[in-house]
Design goal:
233 residues, mainly alpha, Arc Repressor Mutant, subunit A, 2 domains, 11 helices, 5 strands
C-alpha cells in the first residue's frame, strides 16, 4: 500500500461536495468503483467547469484509471461498472450526443446544472468536438445563475435554489456574471460574497461604464473591511 504523506501546508485547491452527498448518497453506495467514479465526476465538474464529460474522456483519464486499478481489476471493466451503477442510483445522468464522427455516450453529475445540460442535449443544442462535449449552443447564450454558481463556487444545494432564482429576477444578468467573476478573481467562492457585491451595486451604484477588461482594478473595490468577513485568513 502506498502511504499518503498528508496535505501540504499553504494554499491548496479545494472543491465543494454537497452535504447531501454524505447524508443521502454515500450511505447507499455499496460499490467502490461506483464511489470512485462518482467522486471523480464531481472533481472533474468543478476542476474543468464543464457539465458533460464523454465516455472517451473518462477512458483516457489517467488519474481515474490509476484509482480504479487500485481495486485490483481491469480499469475499463471497473469504469463500466462504476458508471452503470452511478447512473442506476441517480448520482450521474447519461445521454448520447451525436456528431459527424458517430455517437458519444456522455455523463453528467445529477445537479441543477447537470439536469439543465441534459435538457440541452435532448434538445440537440450540444455537440462534440473531438472527444470533448461542447456545452454551449452555437449561438452563445449568457450563462444563467445556476451555471455561474456551479462553475465558480461548486455544486448547488437545494436550499440555495430559491435565493438564486430571486437574485436572477432582481439583478441584470450582466451584473450577476460580473459579480461571480470578481468573486472568482478574489478567490472567495461564497454565494454571500457574490450577493454582497450585487447589493452594493444596487444601493451605491455601479456606474454606467464597467471595464470588463480590467477585472483587477474592479476587484479592489471589494477587498476592503466591508467584505473582509468573506475572506479566509
Amino acid at each position: 500500500m502506498d502511504k499518503f504523506e498528508g496535505f501540504p501546508a499553504g494554499e491548496i485547491a479545494f472543491i465543494s461536495v454537497p452535504d447531501l452527498f454524505f447524508s443521502g448518497l454515500l450511505p447507499t453506495v455499496d460499490s467502490l468503483p461506483e464511489l470512485k467514479v462518482t467522486l471523480h465526476m464531481i472533481w472533474l465538474r468543478q476542476r474543468q467547469g464543464r457539465q458533460a464529460v464523454s465516455r472517451a474522456e473518462l477512458e483516457a483519464d489517467e488519474t481515474l484509471a490509476r484509482g480504479l486499478a487500485g481495486l485490483g481489476g481491469d480499469p475499463a471493466a471497473l469504469l463500466e461498472e462504476g458508471l452503470a451503477r452511478a447512473v442506476e442510483r441517480g448520482a450521474l445522468l447519461h445521454a448520447i450526443v451525436s456528431s459527424a464522427s458517430g455517437t458519444h455516450p456522455v455523463y453528467l453529475v445529477n445537479s441543477e446544472g447537470g439536469r439543465q445540460a441534459l435538457a440541452a442535449i435532448q434538445a440537440g443544442q450540444l455537440g462534440v468536438r473531438g472527444e470533448q462535449v461542447v456545452d454551449r449552443p452555437v449561438a452563445e447564450a449568457r450563462p444563467n445563475i445556476f451555471e455561474l454558481y456551479e462553475n465558480n463556487i461548486g455544486l448547488l444545494s437545494p436550499i440555495l435554489a430559491d435565493e438564486l432564482r430571486e437574485a436572477e429576477a432582481s439583478y441584470p444578468a450582466e451584473w450577476i456574471e460580473d459579480a461571480f467573476r470578481i468573486a472568482a478573481a478574489n478567490n472567495v467562492r461564497k454565494w454571500r460574497y457574490v450577493q454582497a457585491i450585487l447589493e452594493r451595486w444596487a444601493t451605491k451604484g455601479r456606474g454606467d461604464e464597467f471595464d470588463r477588461r480590467n477585472i483587477e482594478k474592479e476587484r479592489r473595490w471589494f477587498t476592503d473591511e466591508e467584505f473582509e468577513k468573506f475572506f479566509l485568513h
